[in-house]
Design a protein that fits this description.
The chain is of the alpha+beta class. It contains four helices and three strands, in the order H-E-H-E-E-H-H. It has a three-stranded mixed β-sheet. It is elongated. The relative contact order is 0.22. This is CBS domain-containing protein.
Length: 77
């Protein structure tokens, strides 16, 4: 029988939480993902509300030279 281990998000999350803004460039987002080794990063609006996620696949599809903003490329709920 497998043993179930309970883990709280608080125990594995990093602080401060790294985010990108909808208005950020794809280059800015790509640098953040690479610098911290993230596969994805939360996207927030001007009021710091979560509006989506940006993952490495989104960045690869758009490219870092893209004129699109994070908000145009992100995955929205």
């Amino acid at each position: 029988m497998k043993r179930v281990v309970t883990m709280r998000v608080l125990n594995v999350m990093q602080r401060p939480v790294r985010v990108v803004r909808q208005s950020d460039s794809m280059r800015t987002a790509a640098v953040l993902l690479a610098e911290f080794g993230f596969a994805a990063v939360p996207v927030v609006d001007d009021h710091d509300r979560l509006v989506g996620m940006l993952n490495s696949g989104d960045v690869l599809r758009a490219g870092t030279a893209s004129s699109e903003t994070v908000g145009e490329v992100m995955t929205a709920p």
